[in-house]
Specification:
400 residues; alpha+beta; Ribosomal Protein S5, domain 2; Alpha-Beta Plaits; 2 domains; six-stranded mixed beta sheet; five-stranded mixed beta sheet; 22% strand; binds ligand DP6
Length: 400
C-alpha cells in the first residue's frame, strides 16, 4: 500500500485482567512516587469468569488528546497514577524503536489514546477494583504499542497490588532493595492449575459507609505504627517462605492458618495506627467467629478468612467442604428473602446443616449482614479478547 495508509491506520485492542486477594498482605510504602513496599506479599489471582476488568485502548491520528472512561463515566486522564502508567509504557515503546526493532509501528507512538474500562462486578460491592483496573490498563496499552515482557513493574506504579494481577494462580510481589524500584516485581509462584480443589468465597458484607482508602491508610500506618515496622522487618520475611511452601505442598491447614494470622496482623497494625483505622465491622467479626467455631467443630482447619481494607470476607476452603460451609453462612446470616440469588458464580450443591454444627457455632443470627456470596477459584492472568465485537470503543473512538 501507499505510505499514507499506515499513517491513517488506527489501532484498537481489548483485554481483560483479574482481581487478586493477598494472603500475605502488602501494607506500607517506602517510596510513594514509585510505589515501593516495605514488605513482600503473596496473593491468589481470582478467576475472571466471576471478577474481571475489561479495557479497550485505541490510538488514532485523529484523536486530539488522551482520554479515559471508567465504568461509563469520563474521568480525568491527568490522574498521576494513570500518567505514570502511560509515561512508562510510552518510554518502553520508544526504547524498542531506538533499539531498532523493524516490526515496530512508528506511527502509533505519536498518537493520542482513548481508554475505556468496565468491571463485571458492581463497584458498590466494595471489592478492590484498582488492582484489576491498573493491571488491565498496563496490559492493554502494552498490546497496543507492541511491547512484550515484564510489565508488573509498570502496573505497580498504578497501584501496588496491581502488579500481582499481571499473573495467574499464586503470585508473589518481591519487595526489592533498589531505590529505583527495578527489582520490585511480581512473580508467579504456581499457576492456576496447581491446586484445582481450592475454592474461594467472597462474602459481600452490606457495608453502610465507605472505609478509608488503602493509600492514605497505609501512609498513616507507616508514620505511626511500630507494630507495622516490626511486622515488615521481622514477621513477613519468614511468612513469605512458609506461605510459598504451603502453596507448593498444597498443605491446606498450613495455608489457611497463615492466611488468617496474616489478615489478623494486618488489622492489628491498623488498630496500632494513630488515630486507629477500623476496617472490620460486626459482620466481619461474626464471620471470624463462625470460621473458628466451624474449624473447631471439625477438629481441623477447613476454612480460612482474609479481609482487606473493607468489611468483605474472602474465604478459602476445599471444594468438598463448600456446600456445608455455605449452609452455615446462610443460616447465621439469613439473606433478604426477595434479595435475589444469594450465591453467584460457581454453582454450590445443596447440603444439610446438622443441628450439631448449628449448636457448635451457636451465634446469634445476623439477618442481611451478608448481601451475597461470589463463589470462585484461582484463575489466569490478563488475556487479549480476540472478538472485535467486544471492543468498548466504537469506530468513532468513543464508548459504544
Ligand atoms: C489491604 O494496592 O490498593 O489490599 O498501592 O496505594 O494503590 P496502593 O494500595 P493498594 O493496597 C492494597 C492493600 C491490601 C493488601 C494487599 O492487597 O496486599
Amino acid at each position: 500500500g501507499k505510505p499514507e495508509d499506515s499513517m491513517d491506520k488506527s489501532n484498537i485492542v481489548t483485554c481483560t485482567a483479574p482481581v487478586n486477594i493477598a494472603v500475605i498482605k502488602y501494607w506500607g510504602k517506602r517510596n510513594e512516587e514509585l510505589i515501593l513496599p516495605i514488605n513482600s506479599s503473596l496473593s491468589v489471582t481470582l478467576h475472571q469468569d466471576q471478577l474481571k476488568t475489561t479495557t479497550t485502548v485505541a490510538t488514532s491520528r485523529s484523536f486530539q488528546e488522551d482520554r479515559i472512561w471508567l465504568n461509563g463515566k469520563e474521568e480525568d486522564i491527568n490522574h498521576p497514577r494513570i500518567q505514570s502508567c502511560l509515561r512508562e509504557i510510552r518510554r518502553l515503546a520508544r526504547k524498542r524503536r531506538s533499539d531498532g526493532d523493524p516490526g515496530f509501528d512508528l506511527t502509533s507512538l505519536s498518537h493520542k489514546v482513548h481508554i475505556c474500562s468496565v468491571n463485571n462486578f458492581p463497584t458498590a460491592a466494595g471489592l478492590a477494583s484498582s488492582a484489576a483496573g491498573f493491571a488491565c490498563l498496563v496490559y492493554t496499552l502494552a498490546q497496543v504499542f507492541g511491547i512484550e515482557g515484564e510489565l508488573s513493574g509498570i502496573a505497580r506504579q498504578g497501584s501496588g497490588s496491581a502488579c500481582r494481577s499481571m499473573y495467574g494462580g499464586f503470585v508473589q510481589w518481591i519487595m526489592g532493595q533498589k531505590d529505583d524500584g527495578k527489582d520490585s516485581l511480581a512473580q508467579q509462584v504456581e499457576p492456576e492449575t496447581h491446586w484445582p480443589e481450592l475454592r474461594i468465597l467472597v462474602l459481600v458484607a452490606s457495608a453502610e459507609r465507605k472505609p478509608i482508602g488503602s493509600t492514605s491508610g497505609m501512609q498513616t500506618s507507616v508514620q505511626t505504627s511500630c507494630l507495622l515496622k516490626h511486622r515488615a522487618e521481622s514477621v513477613v520475611p519468614g511468612r513469605m517462605v512458609e506461605m510459598t511452601e504451603a502453596v507448593q505442598r498444597k498443605d491446606f491447614a498450613a495455608f489457611a492458618e497463615l492466611t488468617m494470622k496474616d489478615s489478623n496482623q494486618f488489622h492489628a497494625t491498623c488498630l496500632d495506627t494513630y488515630p486507629p483505622i477500623f476496617y472490620l465491622n460486626n459482620v466481619s467479626q461474626q464471620v471470624i467467629s463462625l470460621v473458628h467455631r466451624y474449624n473447631r467443630h471439625h477438629g481441623e482447619t477447613r476454612a480460612a478468612y482474609t479481609f482487606d481494607a473493607g468489611p468483605n470476607a474472602v474465604i478459602f476452603i476445599l471444594q468438598q467442604h463448600v456446600p456445608e460451609f455455605v449452609q452455615a453462612v446462610q443460616h447465621f446470616f439469613p439473606p433478604e428473602s426477595n434479595g435475589g440469588q444469594f450465591i453467584k458464580g460457581l454453582p454450590v450443591n445443596h447440603a444439610a446443616l446438622s443441628e450439631e454444627l448449628k449448636r457448635a457455632i451457636g451465634l446469634e443470627p445476623m439477618p442481611k449482614g451478608i448481601s451475597y456470596i461470589i463463589s470462585t477459584k484461582a484463575g489466569p492472568g490478563p488475556c487479549v479478547v480476540e472478538d472485535p465485537a467486544q471492543h468498548l470503543l466504537g469506530s468513532d473512538g468513543l464508548p459504544k
